[in-house]
């Protein structure tokens, strides 16, 4: 979600979710760095130990990301209800980051407001009311209270007409919840997959360490090979 629909992130007020994004990035960096010297780890005992420690650290971060995603799954609906409602009713038009996030959500989700277009209160007077000024009646200017991102066909200023054929009537909360829940499910699946890969790599390291020939065994093998070669050379003479 961070890379594909990163504009949604300001609407999610859960700090654990935001920290999980950072941990996923850190885990990816560790895996990349670890893969760079994986070949050296087989040839040097110090590199093997370092490779294993970094691998264990990556496993810990990955497991923590999966745990956080699972915990957030239980409260995501309630938290998104509150955060989206506050963003629309309290901060829209006042906070540039949240305004941009809400507009992006409404445009992508083909929706309006948290629970409907009624989240944007109409002005005190009705559009088209007349008032008396300077000796004559004049029509009050039509004011826009619904964002253009709520329109079926986006055009600058289209939100001035709040007709059902012009704006979306349903809210964005269900769409937003589905997007975040889908992202959490993908996070859980990826965490489980990466954790399984890490465990497989640990097993490979264990097998390589157990069956890797020692320096003494290599020396004995080379001695035997050199002895056999010298014996053949002597017989050929």
From TrEMBL:
SUPFAM superfamilies, A to Z: Tetraspanin (SSF48652)
Pfam families: Tetraspanin
Subcellular location: Membrane
InterPro entries cross-referenced by the UniProt entry: Tetraspanin/Peripherin, Tetraspanin_EC2_sf
Keyword Lipid metabolism: no
Main location: membrane
GO cellular component: membrane
Keywords of this entry: Membrane, Transmembrane, Transmembrane helix
Membrane topology: Multi-pass membrane protein
Transmembrane intervals: 16-37, 49-70, 188-211
Keyword Transmembrane appears in the UniProt entry: yes
Protein name per its UniProtKB record: Tetraspanin
Organism: Diploscapter pachys
